[in-house]
Amino acid sequence: MTRTRYSKDRGLTTRMVTTMFLIGLLYVVLVGVLLAVLGKFWPVILIVAGGLFIAQFWFSDKIAAFGMGAREVTPEQAPELHGVVDRICALADMPKPKVAIADSDIPNAFATGRSERSALVCATTGLLRRLEPEELEGVLAHEMSHVAHRDVAVMTIASFLGVLAGLMTRIALYSGLSRSASNAGPAGIAILVIPLVSAMVYAIGFLLTRLLSRYRELSADRTAALLTGRPSALASALTKVDSQMARIPTRDLRKAEPYNAFFFVPAFSSRESLGRLLSSHPTLQQRLDQLARMSAELARP
Cofactor comment in the record (predicted)? Predict the structure, then answer.
């Protein structure tokens, strides 16, 4: 974790390290299967996989910001938003990230960046229009907690390894080698096993990243509330944003779904129970219960 006044979360650190280790282990298993089957074609697989991994690590934050239509704004263009970010940076003793606004009615916020130098915090116009200043401060403190804990970078890498597993399998199957599956023998059987192994890697990786993502959201709520000293303001923002999601057109929510892992609140309608089940975030009630306990603790003499 970067040295800031955000409280350390050893549970989050442990989960990040464990998730990366397990997903990396799955990835090694998949690569081993591919190398055993592909033989002389293994350099192509490794070069493509390595190139995509580097591209994802360096450009994922820019892709997410571009996809949400985030545009960087100056203090003159958005003085109130910059003022909130300045206050949080002073409280946390951390460098100021780039500040952006996304022209969207979906009330949300997100942070991207591999480090503090490349960090960007963005709020949508829908969020700025609906929240009070203390509520907005709680939301942005939550997002900047992700930057301080560096869990944004970890989630990006962890998610990509699962995607990479599927991509590598497609390369194997469409490289012309799949034709040998029609031949009797171990090679044909092995190639038929590749899709099954890839599916297992993707499914396990998906579950691991979802578990990590839910915990990191609770951690960000907790550390943001401790930093600002106002858990009730963050709870109020959560309730308000979640209730407003049901009023957003389903078409707009579906467009935003690919970026749910970055969002303060996932872009799901409350009616979508399946979406809630597989959500990258804990339930609203879990988050509110945690903040209520913190409010009670802070109120004690």
Answer: Binds 1 zinc ion per subunit.
Residue 143 annotated in active site: yes
Q: Could you tell me if residue 5 is inside a domain? A: no
Give 258's Cβ-side CA count (13 Å radius). Answer: 8
Q: What percent of the chain has pLDDT over 70?
A: 78
Tell me the two tokens of residue 120. Answer: 């960007």
- In DSSP terms, 122 is beta-bridged to 100, 110
- What's the whole-number mean pLDDT along residues 66-94? 92
Please report whether residue 1 resides in a domain: no
Residue 255 belongs to a domain: yes
280, 213 Cβ separation under 8 angstroms: yes
The two structure tokens encoding residue 59:
């450009």
Average of pLDDT values for 266-280? 61
Annotated binding site: 142, 146, 217
How far apart are the C-alpha atoms of 114 and 94, rounded to whole Å? 15
- Range of 164's domain? 10-299
**C-alpha dist (Å) from residue 100 to 65, 72, 112, 125:** 9, 4, 11, 10
Q: Is 287 part of any domain? A: yes
Q: Residues forming the annotated binding site for Zn(2+)?
A: 142, 146, 217
Set 72, 80, 137, 143: catalytic member: 143
